[in-house]
Amino acid sequence: MSLVATKEFQRLRRIRQLGLSFLTYHGAEHSRFAHSLGVFHLFVRLEAELERKGFQFSEEEKLLGRCLGLLHDIGHGPLSHVLEGIMTPGKKHEAWAIEIITAPTEIRCVLESLDPGLPKKICQVLQGDPQWQLVKNIISSQLDIDRMDYLLRDALMTGTSYGHFDLTRLLAVLELNDRQTSLIVNNKGLMAAEQFVFARYYAYWQIYFHKTTRGAEKILQAIWKRARELFSRDSLPPDLIPVSLRPFLAGGWDWNHYLSIDDSDIWMALKIWQDSPDPILSDLSRRILYRELFKPIEMVENPSVNLLDLPEKLKEVVRSSGYDPEYYLLFDAPSDVAYDYYTSPEEEDTSKPPIWVVDKSGTPRDITKLSEPIHAIAGKRKIVKYIYVPDEKCRREVEKIIRK
Amino acid sequence: MDLLGNYQMLMMLLGTVGEIHGRKKLQKMVYLLQEAGCPFKEEFDYHLFGPYSEELATKVDEMKFLGLLDEKPGATVSGYTQYIYSLSAAAKQYIKEHEDSFRLPLHFQQLAKELARYDARTLELMATLRFLKKMNYSDAEAAECVKRLKPDQEYKDDEIEKSLDFLNRLTSTGSREDVT
């Protein structure tokens, strides 16, 4: 399809799907390009599957779904989620997708040649307009093809089998709800759905929330913060300001600037910055380049640790070893991670629909109510908080403070 | 970096209104405050035309974990136990000692208190209408759509009209788009 041949789509070859996960799983080198083709492919497979079951997509829906499969991640920036909202504060990949599709890009040109109203319709789906419920839910919901592709792809490339599930079986047990607005699992498919939910759960804790990966990502965020700080104080020498990144350091960027950058701009910046006269910028850059990462400490729920003094005590640990706590004391929590795993809706809040499985009487029910193992992992959120410090000495001191 | 930084806005909100009954109400209050320009950073999704933030829901659990939030069981609503959320004694103490970082601008304090007086059902209606208005639905179209999308809620015309009035006031005094 000529969408793939556009400049903007080809750029996705240069953006790693999993950001810095390759520091933990060295095989994780795959790109957003591969994943986007994968989602496109799954939409086509799902079309065939649903047609087999008697549902016919309109030509308009088919075109929309296929384009969305390809373009749903078009708005990603360097290293995908790592720097999202940080290089361009307030604007994450979904907002960028809408901009790229409506700006005078090659993508818009191709879309308009297929259907002049297509860019607008795609934006409507991305924004959740009720007229495109089905297509939207197929691309993005608790049971969507985006997840189906990346779980399998990420499992394969990282070499973990946790994210693996039987895709063919899952597609075979999917059908549409009564109003034909979303996918549900038929009565015989409970186990296939369970396997999918477990895959999400394990992939989250093994891959997306892996403490080493997350620690590295936090360091990269600290690097960007330092670079911005130095730039704003005019303390970043001109030869250390990469041309492509200047608009982002300065806080004045547009879609042209955004489409010009990919992972390689970040790597180049790190290589330049490792020799920066600023000790923080150079040290942190080296840590990423040569994998000298911070040490993680897992916080435990501990009412005896006085929350009020804890922030200051932690800063003191790091300070007394000669590090600036602004950059050398880092924290991570699940709410910081772009991925999630399945948890059932809270209370009667219908804004978060569950995964529906048809029970023996023909009624769609929340999978958490039909499956005990799923209830165990989806009934309540597991919370893990990490503290990251630069060396072993700091780590031991933090351990003493929080484990008392 | 700050251990408590992520939770600052939520702590300010709870400090202002005292307690919030149920997670649904909390979700909708944060959404509407955000839409009015209050700098909550949580991302909302729109799966069933009601905004929901997984990030916010997770932060509530993190605040419990850190001992910032008390979660007490309250009434049973539609078969679910509704929980009452308030700041823990430790969090209240922390805010007292760092008052300057925890002061919500006056107009947001007033808005938060006003929103707190509505029940979850009304707030959900407002949130859904707001979402539709952002999709450029007119008042009439949004009213029709919300009844069609959520027939089980049985929204009445007068409550829809009151909610639309409220929203028009909300966004004329400072919408999300106005805040830089």
Secondary-structure map:
The complex is a heterodimer of chains A (404) and B (180).
Chain A: H1 7-10, H2 32-52, H3 59-71, H4 93-102, H5 106-114, H6 118-127, H7 133-139, H8 145-158, H9 167-173, E1 174-176, E2 183-185, H10 190-208, H11 211-232, H12 246-250, H13 255-260, H14 263-273, H15 279-289, E3 295-299, H16 310-320, H17 325-328, E4 330-332, E5 356-358, E6 364-366, H18 367-370, H19 372-378, E7 385-389, H20 392-403
Antiparallel strand pairs in A: 1-2, 3-7, 4-7, 5-6
Helix pairs in contact in A: 2-3, 2-8, 3-7, 4-6, 8-10, 11-15, 14-15, 16-20
Chain B: H1 8-17, E1 19-21, H2 23-35, H3 54-66, E2 69-77, E3 80-87, H4 89-97, H5 106-116, H6 120-134, H7 139-149, H8 157-172
Antiparallel strand pairs in B: 1-3, 2-3
Helix pairs in contact in B: 2-5, 2-6, 6-7, 6-8
- Secondary-structure-based class of chain B equals mainly alpha
Level of helix content of chain A?
40-55%
Class inferred from helices and paired strands of chain A: mainly alpha
3D shape of chain A? globular
Helix-strand string of chain B:
HEHHEEHHHHH
CATH superfamily membership of the domain at 7-158 in chain A: Hypothetical protein af1432
Oligomeric assembly = heterodimer
Q: Percent of residues of chain B in beta strands?
A: 5-15%
The low-pLDDT segments of chain B are 174-180
The H/E string of chain A reads HHHHHHHHHEEHHHHHHEHHEEEHHEH
| Number of domain modules of chain B | 1
Largest sheet of chain A: 3 strands, antiparallel
Number of helices of chain A: 20
Structural Rg of chain B: 17 Å
Folded structure, characterized:
The complex is a heterodimer of chains A (404) and B (180). Chain A is built from 20 helices and 7 strands. With 404 residues, chain A is mostly helical. In chain A, strands 3-7-4 form a 3-stranded antiparallel β-sheet, sandwiched between helices. In chain A, helix 14 (263-273) packs across helix 15. Chain A is globular, with a radius of gyration of 23 Å. Chain B contains 8 helices and 3 strands, in the order αβααββααααα. Chain B has helices at residues 8-17, 23-35, 54-66, 89-97, 106-116, 120-134, 139-149, 157-172, and strands spanning 19-21, 69-77, 80-87. In chain B, a hairpin with a 2-residue loop joins strand 2 (69-77) and strand 3. The two termini of chain B are 23 Å apart. At the A-B interface, helix 16 and helix 17 of A face helix 2, helix 3, helix 4 and helix 6 of B.
